[in-house]
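Box S1 | Example of a co-folding query
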Amino acid sequence: MSDPFLWREADADSLSPPRYCACVSDLSDIAAWRGAATHPACAAFFDSCRAKIARVVQAKRPLCLASGACCRFEAYGHRMYLSGLEAAFVLARIDAARARRQANPLRQFEVHDAKSRGDCPYLRAGQCGEHEERPLGCRIYYCDQGSDGRGAEWQSELYEELHRATLKLHEQLGVPYRYLEWRDALGLLAG
Ligand code: SF4
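Box S1 (continued) | Returned holo structure for iron/sulfur cluster
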């Protein structure tokens, strides 16, 4: 199983060129994730995860000290990972929100440009342009460690708990599990 931690430090593979052409196994996984992302159990699961994170964040009251800095992955020195199923669910939600605003769904060139810049395709002027539908990892991570210095602890514990539950959701829905870097996942799934 892949590393269950929320964010990983950037490593040498960040220097590799992006690979967005899907092979046969990618295509079958993508189809499974897209199909499962429309299942009511999937929406119920991720909505309940979001609500749980919101409750914890409200209790812990971390501050966003450097708005948008952690979304500039290369400069910040870390990566955000998530499961293929979560990526498919989030992308479908964001594309639907974009459609309501008469905006295009996410396109490959936006993902490619973001990777070239070293940031997220949804980052807009230092803010998340899709705040309502952002992934679980984006909801949990704060650079503020709190007055007790234990921010990383509760963030990791919460993420690991939700990650274990995400694995169970994959089993429940019978879809393959893969743990992907955010922009690589978007590169596979974007239209
Ligand atoms: S989805 Fe939003 S919060 Fe998450 S990395 Fe992208 S811009 Fe940042």
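Residues 151-173 form the longest helix (23 residues). The first strand starts at residue 7 and ends at 9.
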